[in-house]
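Exercise 3.2. Students should predict the tertiary structure of the chain below and write it as structure tokens, then compare their answer with the key that follows.

Predict this chain's 3D structure.
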Amino acid sequence: MRIILGAVSLASAIILTTTSCNQSPPLPNRAAKEVPTRYGPEFWEDWGDGYAEVSTYQLVMPRYGEAREGESILIFVSETMSERQRVKADPGRNPKADEFPVMKLNWLKNFQTGIYDYSEMTSSFLGLGPKAGRPAGMLAKTSFSRQEWCGHMFAQALYDASKVRISGSSYFDGDSDLGQTLPFQAEGLSEDALPFWVRGMAGPVLQPGESKSVPFLTSLRSSRDAHQPMAWSRINLTRSLTVQKLESGAGEFEVETFSAQLANNKGFVYFVEKDAPHRIIRWQFTSGEAAELVASDRVKYWELNMPGGVEALRSLGLEPRAPRFSPEE
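Answer key:
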């Protein structure tokens, strides 16, 4: 895969049309529909079947001044959450009044840095119905963890109707004990919610060619990288007027471009499949992070944890973890 590295302008990222020589099996065909703006029958036709959408990406991640190659995995799946516990609600264990539907996104990133590797995951839970004063389409919870040879960290944000409660702990000086409460801003969008926004699952809904400025909350990951508290600012969101063709290791797609630009020139660009289910085909950030889709499938991955499950892994363009010790001579 050829991905343009380093900090780039959003304009140059929008016209990016690199191609890949990696060829994966064709993705499943899906009927074209409008981006869902409400969680009605059409939305649940796609997301109420009990399957998760698992997509794999070739990743470039800047770390310690170098571009690191790795892989990223996006797992979107609907599930039922307990409001009281802010965890997945097991059947029959919670009062029905305590439960509400969410879209969960597990976003994994793995990459090597010299002798040691990094493993990261952000879990975000988007409410698919109103609950406890939160409107549909608002985050209920995010959590972030990172493990690497120097140490590990964990942070979470719980979203209430009027505030965001942040907590966590870390090995690193200055981040050892995290505790913060922020007011929630009307029409606010979290950086952790951007993948939902570009797929039409979270507002604001933009028409082609439209832009809008909204309050913007730093992600858990960005906050930890900067060793700064999470904070509100403003961001300018834009949906492209036109559609372009884009090739990746998964094939050729017609895509729309969704960009998010901060006043400090930090920005995010997502290239999103025009037709349903509006998968993310590529992303490119001014930080230098970039990724391109390799394969995508809908599977019940939690049922594939026995030895035979590795074949499903290969269908997603990944190989099982190889033994890391050298064989004895």
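Discussion points: The chain has five helices and 17 strands. Helices lie at 10-14, 41-47, 194-198, 220-226, 310-315.
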